[in-house]
Design brief:
2 copies of one chain form a homodimer. The first copy, chain A, has 7 helices and no strands. Chain A is mainly α and about 100 residues long. Chain A has a single domain, classed as 434 Repressor (Amino-terminal Domain). In chain A, about 70% of the residues lie in helices and about 0% in strands. The interface between A and B is medium-sized, with 22 and 22 residues. Chain A binds a DNA duplex (30 and 30 nucleotides) through helix 4 and helix 5.
Chain lengths: ~100, ~100
Amino acid sequence: MKATKTKRLKAAGWKAGTVQQFLGLSDDEAALVELKLTLMAAVRQARTKRGLSQTALAQRMGSSQSRVAKIETGDPSISLDLIVRAFLATGATRRELGRVFG
Amino acid sequence: MKATKTKRLKAAGWKAGTVQQFLGLSDDEAALVELKLTLMAAVRQARTKRGLSQTALAQRMGSSQSRVAKIETGDPSISLDLIVRAFLATGATRRELGRVFG
DNA sequence: TCAGTATATGTCATATTCGACATAGACGCG
DNA sequence: CGCGTCTATGTCGAATATGACATATACTGA
């Protein structure tokens, strides 16, 4: 997935189909982007729910505050690996992860 | 996650706890590794179920046969992004993905 | 106002992951 | 046997993601 492509997703508000068409993403690419965005939002929710700061979460997962901020703002340079690591580091379980995915 | 760490997971057969202790993984790191391995196995299952060769799946997802082979053999150089892309490219739905995760 | 805290954004050198390719082994079929 | 197909493994240069750091903004409360 091209960084320049998903970058533009941040100028959001569009419907998924429209964005996909505009960016020329395949169905699966689009699905993955949506999945990541959903999970990114879930990280913020899980973090704030436990009263953690971005810095605190970053420490838990061995990363840095700026990375956590990028996760939560939907930066396209963030891997699914890192998003899932962040989600689990909030204390969320694998079962909760499955619920977000499904 | 270090490649050298998960590499050794391939000499498998151990219980999760033991491997984790041996490799010095945190709980979350270990959970992520297990998650990836689960999903990697699911890719093979989904692919063969549809009678696709590794080459055919690779074409569908714009990758190469060797990458698909690495996915299915649990190679640690494979990102979660790529695993999920492969899984969806088999024709599996996001819902099915959630079921594997949960 | 000022200090402290939280979050956003940009950059950098380094590390990781990528697709592609070569090649080897296994298997079945003629 | 020889040939085609499928899968495994290793390696490459290129592409991408990483943590760290600097810095900007905003919002507290003293």
